[in-house]
């Protein structure tokens, strides 16, 4: 199956940008609605002077799961159920990962080095970000996951374990996770995912908002995310002024 070139929206472009942030939208969102939602929350664009922010649109995927319409937009991969214990549909996930890797290669042609990429997202977009960052592009700067989990037997954890056996000093990108507390089951599984990463010696910041946040993004979340991003890829021009 041919890998599609993803349609993307960009927040800001200038000659001094040294990195690229790829923000993957969640289910029921599009690249456009995700970008607009973040702007609504911040009252300004989600952007950085020194980092190009890219919002890719998930491609249409053939859905072979029973009781689901043949094609749906806004989905990065096939999902059988919302249970975190459900087995991953590896072929579907790999298809999305290949599309993101192709986008990264396109950004690299602009002169951006691997260690200046951050990949993250919301919900299932964050799931794809974790697959890309810990299975395929382990030399990127960082990964972030907003309101997202991984299956306890995820191939992400299996891949990290195998890589550790081959090279115990292998580098992996740091992970930043945020979750609300309204849905205890989701929070429990998110905490378990964070614990799995920590057990595998991945630098993991897991932040929980105990102010009754549901499956959503809030302004405070974006404030702390931006601080983490600027720590991972500093704006040296700003620090010199």
UniProtKB/TrEMBL annotation:
Q: Which GO terms describe its cellular component?
A: cytoplasm
| EC number(s) recorded for this UniProt protein | 3.1.2.22
Domain Phospholipase/carboxylesterase/thioesterase: residue ranges = 15-232
Its name, as the record gives it, is: palmitoyl-protein hydrolase
Broadest EC class assigned to this enzyme? hydrolase
Question: Which species expresses this protein natively?
Answer: Acropora cervicornis (Staghorn coral)
Q: Which family does it belong to?
A: Belongs to the AB hydrolase superfamily. AB hydrolase 2 family.
Pfam families in the record, alphabetically?
Answer: Abhydrolase_2 (PF02230)
Look up keyword Methyltransferase and say if it applies: no
The terms under GO molecular function for this entry are: carboxylic ester hydrolase activity; palmitoyl-(protein) hydrolase activity
């Amino acid at each position: 199956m041919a890998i599609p070139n993803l349609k993307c929206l960009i927040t800001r472009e200038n000659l001094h940008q040294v990195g690229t942030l790829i923000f993957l939208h969640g289910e029921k969102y599009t690249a456009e609605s995700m970008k607009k939602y973040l702007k609504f929350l911040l009252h300004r664009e989600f952007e950085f002077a020194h980092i190009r922010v890219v919002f890719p649109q998930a491609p249409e995927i053939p859905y072979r799961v029973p009781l689901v319409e043949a094609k749906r937009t806004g989905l990065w991969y096939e999902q059988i159920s919302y249970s975190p214990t459900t087995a991953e549909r590896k072929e579907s996930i790999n298809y999305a990962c290949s599309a993101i890797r192709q986008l990264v290669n396109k950004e690299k042609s602009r002169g951006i080095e691997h260690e200046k990429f951050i990949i993250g997202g919301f919900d299932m977009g964050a799931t794809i970000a974790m697959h890309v960052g810990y299975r395929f592009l382990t030399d990127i700067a960082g990964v972030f996951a907003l309101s997202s989990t991984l299956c306890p037997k995820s191939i992400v954890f299996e891949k990290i374990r195998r890589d550790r056996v081959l090279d115990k000093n292998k580098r992996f990108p740091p992970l930043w996770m945020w979750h609300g507390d309204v849905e205890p089951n989701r929070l429990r599984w998110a905490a378990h995912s964070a614990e799995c990463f920590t057990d595998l010696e991945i630098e993991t910041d897991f932040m929980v908002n105990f102010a009754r946040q549901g499956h959503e993004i809030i302004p405070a979340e974006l404030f702390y995310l931006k601080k983490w991003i600027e720590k991972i890829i500093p704006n040296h021009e700003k620090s010199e002024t």
